[in-house]
Amino acid sequence: MKKFNGKVLTGIISAAIATSCFVGLSVDVSAADDVEVPVSNVDQVSTVVYKVKREVGIAIQKKREAEEAEKARKAEAERVAEEARKAEEARQAKAAEEARKAEANRKAEANRKAEENRRAQDPKKGRENKRAKSSNNSAGGPPPASGNSSIGQAIVNAARSCIGIAYGANRGGISLDCSGLAQYAYRAAGIGVDHSAAMLYSSCTHVSNPQPGDLVFWATGGKVNHVEVYVGGGRAVGANTPGSPIAEHGLWESVSQKIKGYGRFY
């Protein structure tokens, strides 16, 4: 029986490891340097080399699997973090929109109460407003505008800037249906109002002699369902029907509903 010195066997094992082309695997075979290992024939040496290669291969596979598992774990953590970030952004955006609506409602309510107080302190003006509201409910059309204001003109300019835009298109975060156009135009003048024709009608100051920048309301069966921005001269800018662009036109050419009245928020 032949004997291989430990150093010889160490060299054989090290060569086997080297032939595996595996980088990063540490195998300590230095302890075999001073050991004589009996080997009966060359086949036994080949068996040792084969076993070493197999063990190294198993170690390589385990390391690759561990690396892939770690990569998958990191990818999942990043996905969860991204979903959490998007959810937080959506929450903040919703909170901001709700705050904006609440502020608009607060201002509208403050304007309404201020107008009520003003009417209470001025009985003559209150009687005029009552007559105006009664006249609006049965009006066939508005009398011609007799004046203008910087706020009203700013509202008119904003409304006219939307002419040609498709009904329902988004502008400045507002969907431009009929009340959306009114909300957009008033916001351009620094005034927050509701995005609802009925709510606008219930919270505005009703007038009998509309000025540029005021709102014109239509109703079907007494229920307000449409609003446009009055621009003067018996004309208004409005978003009438889906599929049609925003346009300026005479009041009698806009919609088939009966005019309910006129109002303002400034």
Key phrases:
266 residues; alpha+beta; endopeptidase fold (from Nostoc punctiforme); 2 domains; six-stranded antiparallel beta sheet; two-stranded antiparallel ribbon; 52% helix; elongated; disordered N terminus
Give a verbal description of the structure.
The structure is a single chain. The protein has 266 residues and is α+β, with helices and mostly antiparallel strands. It folds into two domains: 2-78; 122-264, endopeptidase fold (from Nostoc punctiforme). It is built from six helices and ten strands. It has a six-stranded antiparallel beta sheet with strand order 5-10-6-7-8-9. Strand 7 (223-232) and strand 8 form a beta hairpin. It is elongated. The model is unreliable at 1-7, 20-37 and 123-148 (pLDDT under 50).
Helix content: 40-55%
Shape: elongated
> What structural class do you assign from the helix and strand content?
alpha+beta
Estimate nothing, just give the exact number of structural domains.
Answer: 2
Known CATH architecture of the largest domain: Alpha-Beta Complex
pLDDT averaged over residues: 77
Beta-strand portion reads 15-25%
N to C succession of SSEs? EHEHHHEEHHEEEEEE
Distance between the termini: 112 Å
Give the biggest sheet. Answer: 6 strands, antiparallel
